[in-house]
Amino acid sequence: MKKLLPVCLGAALCLLGGCGSDTSNENIVIVYNWGEYVDPDTLAMFEEETGIEVVYDEFETNETMYPKIENGAAEYDVVCPSDYMISKMIQNDLLLELDFSHIPNAKSNIGSQYWDQSRTFDPENKYSVPYCWGTVGILYNKTMVDEPLTSWAQLWDEKYTDEILMQDSVRDAFMVAEKMYGYSMNTTDPDELQRAMNALIAQKPIVQAYVVDQVRDKMIGGEAAIGVIYSGEAIYTQYENADLEYVIPSEGTNVWIDSWVILKDAPHKENAEKFIDFMCREDIALKNFEYITYSTPNEAAKALIEDDEIRNSPIAFPDLTQYDNLESYTYLGEEADEVYNELWKEIKSY
Amino acid sequence: MSSSMKKLHSLYTDKSGKGKLLAAPYVFWSAFFIIIPLCMILYYGVTDKTGAFTLQNITAIASIGHARAFWRSLLLSVVSTVICFLLAYPLAMILSGMKEKKHNFIILIFILPMWMNFLLRTLAWQTLLEKTGVINGILSFFKLPSLRIINTPYAIVLGMVYNFLPFMVLPLYNALSKIDENVINAAKDLGANKIQTFFRVIMPLSIPGIISGVTMVFVPALTTFVISTLLGGSKVLLIGNVIEQEFTQASNWHLGSGLSIVLMIFIILNMIVSALLDKED
C-alpha cells in the first residue's frame, strides 16, 4: 500500500495533466493581470495589428496569483505582479530574463526613475517592465466626516464605527498598522508584528468590511465614509463622486510598482515580448491610463496627456520627494510570509 | 413492462455478474473524481512540505485562530439547519396535503430561484442588505429604523437559510407525501388527537426525510466560504474560508488538506448519528 498510493496519485495526475490541450503551437498570448487593469480596446487593437489572439485572465491580489503560477495550475505567458512578488518570483526562479532588443518601447518610453525604483526588487532590471505605479492612501467622503483625514491613526477613531473599509490583503492591512506605529512595513520583528496585530484586532469592531476591488464601488455609492485604497482608483472614484478626497497619510505609506514579467516556462515567449512592447507604446499607454486611471511610468504617454489638471495632478503623479517616509514592500522570505499569514488569520478569526 | 425493459432489468440484476458492466461508467467516475482526490487529500493532510509523515496539519485545528473559525462554522450551520427545519416542515406538510396540480405549482415557485446562479443570488442579498441598500431605502422612506445586519453573522445565517432551504423542503415533502393516509386515519380511529397523531405517527414516519434534509443543509452550511465572504464582508471567518485561503493564498496544501480531513470527520459523524437514528425506527 505504501508504494501503491504515490503510484496511483502519479497516474491520476498524469492522466489529468494529459487532458489539458497543448497550446504552444497556437498564435496566442496568455495574459494574467489584475482585475480591470487594462483598456479592453487596447487588447483588440493588439489582436488586430499583430494577428495574435489574447487570452486574458484576472486576479484580485498578489497572494492569490502566486500559487497558481507556482503550481503550474495554468499556463500563462505574461503576468503583472507587484514589486515584492516579483522579487519572490525571481528568487524562486519563475521568471524569464527579458531580451530588451525585442521590447524597444520599454527602454525608450519608461522614465529612468522608475527603472531606478525597480532595482529594489529586480536589481539588474533584467526581469520586469514597469506598467503602473502609485501609493496607498485614505479615500474619504467629505460629506460624511467632519474633519480632514491626515493620519492612519484616525482609522481607529470610534466615531467612524461601521464606516471604514480596510484592504483584504495581508501586506496592505499590516502596512496601515505598522506605519501608524512608525515601524517599517517590511518589519519581521516579533514584538512589532505582535503590536501591529493587536492594533488590527482592536480596530476590527469598527471596520465595516475587508474588501479589495469592492472598495471603489462602495465609496462611490456612499456605503462607507473612509476606505484604504490604491491611488489609481482614487482618480476614477473622484470622477464618479466629487465628494471623495484622497490623502497620503502623514505617517508615510507604500509606493508600489506593478510590472510586466514573462514566465520562465511561458509557451509563447515571442508573443509575450510583442505584447509587452505594445503595452509600452505611448498611444497605448495613454489609452490605458485614461481608462484605468492608474499612474503610468510611461513618460512619452504622460507628455501626450492633454488635460493639464490631470498631468499635474498630485494624486496621479505625486512629487515623491516631498515625503520622507515612503517605502516599498520587499519580499520577506518564506518564514516571514508564514508568520504574517498566521497573524492575519488570527485577526480575521477574532 | 415491455420486453426490452425486461431484458435490461434482467441484465441489471443478473447474478452472474454481467450486469456490472452497466455500473462501469459510475465506477470509473467515482474512482477518478471521488476516491483518488480523497486519497490525495489524505496524503497531503498527513505529510509536511518535505513529504514526511506528520499529524500537525490535523492537530492545527486546535490552534486558537482555527478553533475559533471552526466553532463559529459549527454554530452557524447548526442554527441555519434548525431554522431551515422549522420553516420547511410546516410547508412540506401543507404541500403534501394539497392536490397534485396545486402543489406542483408551489414547488415550481420554490425551485425557480435555484435556476439562477448561486453566486448571483448571494450578491443580490448583498445589494439588498447594504447600509444604502434596497431594504434600507424602503425602510427609511417609511421613516422606519434601518436594518444593520450586513457583515455580521446574522447576514450569513440568512444567506445560508435562503440558499439551502429547498434542500430541506424537498426531502421532507417527499417523505410526508409517501405516508399512507390510512395510517393517519387508523390513528384517529383509535382515539389519537391531532397532536398525538403528529408526534407518534407522522413525525416518526418522516424521519428518513428529516435525516436527508438535515444532512443536505448542514454539510454545505458547515463548509461554505462564499456566503461568509460576500455577506460577512470578510469579517466573519469560517473554517471554509481558512481552508480556501490555505489553498489560494498561503499555498499550503498540506494544512488545507489537514483541516479538510477534520471537517470530513465531523460530516461522517453527522452521517453515523443519522444512520443510527434511522435504524432505531
Describe the structure.
The complex is a heterodimer of chains A (about 350) and B (about 280). In chain A, about 45% of the residues lie in helices and about 15% in strands. Chain A is of the alpha/beta class and about 350 residues long. In chain A, strands 1, 2, 3, 4, 5, 6, 7, 8 and 9 form a 9-stranded mixed sheet that branches. In chain A, α7 packs across α8 (about 190-205), α8 runs parallel beside α15 (about 335-350) and α9 runs parallel beside α10. Chain B has about 280 residues and is mainly alpha-helical. Chain B contains 14 helices and no strands. The interface of A and B includes residues 9, 67 and 168 of A.
Task: Give the biggest sheet of chain B.
Answer: none
Distance between the termini of chain B: 34 Å
H/I helix tally of chain A:
15
Distance between the termini of chain A: 42 Å
Q: Which bin fits the share of residues in helices of chain A?
A: 40-55%
Task: Draw up the topology in text.
The complex is a heterodimer of chains A (350) and B (281).
Chain A: H1 4-19, E1 28-34, H2 40-50, E2 53-59, H3 62-70, E3 78-79, H4 83-91, H5 104-109, H6 112-118, E4 128-141, E5 164-167, H7 170-180, H8 190-203, E6 207-211, H9 214-220, E7 226-230, H10 231-240, E8 244-247, E9 255-262, H11 269-280, H12 282-292, H13 299-304, H14 308-311, H15 334-349
Parallel strand pairs in A: 1-2, 1-3, 5-6, 5-7
Antiparallel strand pairs in A: 3-9, 4-7, 4-8, 4-9
Helix pairs in contact in A: 7-8, 8-15, 9-10
Chain B: H1 3-13, H2 24-45, H3 56-59, H4 64-96, H5 100-111, H6 118-129, H7 134-141, H8 153-177, H9 181-189, H10 194-205, H11 207-223, H12 226-231, H13 239-248, H14 253-280
Helix pairs in contact in B: 2-14, 4-8, 4-11, 8-11, 9-10, 11-14, 13-14
